[in-house]
């Protein structure tokens, strides 16, 4: 039994074959999912999907790339949709310095506002970090994000950074890149992070694991991520599946 803790089956790329995608996930043993929405259209679509499928939950947030578009009323709306019984986290939120669509200062402000909303609602947060590790850690500390904790999604940092995040009550989620042959850092992180703090995800339709690299990713492929972690840790796939699913249920508060 596997838990894909971060997927975007609400993306248009799944509009034609969502039903078949969900069936393939079930066949691969993926029983639980969190569908992540990061703007109005993707959040609305995520909520439609979670109402249709059992064991499929949603996380709602505002993506840093689009931080420039977030208005005060969007934050109010986020709070409203977060009251949905199947919303289990806030995010993805964070900083993305790869694309320069939104100025850094705007991204930081929008990030801080969402952390504070999560504290108000007592929901864990899902962090998106691209080329912004130092500022992310600083803001998480300054805003005392450890009060809610959450997930460093598709973690690509060093084992040292991973340990800093663990100390702040965050879980480390690994995705497709851990299966890439030359992905040294994610493999080291998989080895070093204790099993009770690791999660698996796809981030589909992006970042498909080997041997599907470059193709459309989907929740069924989270099994390949779990298999890679099992190999690196010297555990069985079943042990990794069981522990990462238990971890995900704990962080999202699902029984
Ligand atoms: Zn992300
Ligand atoms: Zn994502």
UniProtKB/TrEMBL annotation:
SUPFAM superfamilies in the record: Metallo-dependent hydrolases
Q: Which GO terms describe its molecular function?
A: DNA nuclease activity; hydrolase activity, acting on ester bonds; metal ion binding
Q: Where does a divalent metal cation 2 bind?
A: 128, 153
List the PROSITE patterns hit by this protein, alphabetically. TATD_1, TATD_2, TATD_3
Query: Pfam families given for it?
Result: TatD_DNase
**Residues binding a divalent metal cation 1, per UniProt:** 6, 8, 92, 203
Q: Which UniProt keywords apply?
A: Hydrolase, Metal-binding
> Which GO cellular component term is one of those annotated?
cytosol
- Tell whether Lipid biosynthesis is among the UniProt keywords: no
- InterPro entries, sorted: DNase_TatD-rel_CS, Metal_Hydrolase, TatD-like, TatD/YcfH-like
Official protein name in the record: Hydrolase TatD
């Amino acid at each position: 039994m596997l838990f894909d803790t971060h997927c975007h089956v609400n993306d248009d790329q799944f509009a034609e074959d969502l039903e078949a995608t969900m069936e393939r996930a079930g066949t691969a043993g993926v029983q639980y999912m969190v569908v992540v929405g990061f703007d109005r259209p993707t959040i609305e679509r995520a909520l439609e999907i979670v109402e249709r499928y059992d064991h499929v939950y949603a996380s709602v947030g505002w993506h840093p790339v689009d931080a420039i578009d977030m208005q005060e009323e969007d934050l109010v709306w986020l709070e409203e949709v977060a009251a949905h019984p199947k919303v289990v986290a806030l995010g993805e939120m964070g900083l993305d310095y790869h694309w320069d669509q939104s100025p850094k200062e705007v991204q930081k402000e929008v990030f801080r506002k969402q952390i504070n909303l999560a504290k108000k609602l007592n929901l864990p947060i899902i962090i998106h970090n691209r080329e912004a590790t130092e500022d992310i850690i600083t803001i998480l500390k300054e805003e005392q994000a450890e009060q809610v904790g959450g997930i460093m999604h598709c973690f690509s940092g060093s084992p040292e950074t991973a340990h800093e995040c663990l100390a702040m009550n965050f879980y480390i989620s690994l995705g497709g890149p851990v299966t890439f042959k030359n992905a040294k850092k994610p493999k080291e992180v998989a080895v070093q992070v204790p099993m009770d703090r690791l999660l698996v995800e796809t981030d589909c339709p992006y970042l498909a694991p080997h041997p599907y690299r470059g193709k459309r990713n989907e929740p069924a492929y989270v099994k390949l991520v779990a298999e890679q972690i099992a190999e690196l840790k010297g555990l069985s796939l079943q042990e990794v599946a069981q522990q990462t699913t238990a971890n995900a249920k704990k962080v999202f508060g699902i029984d």
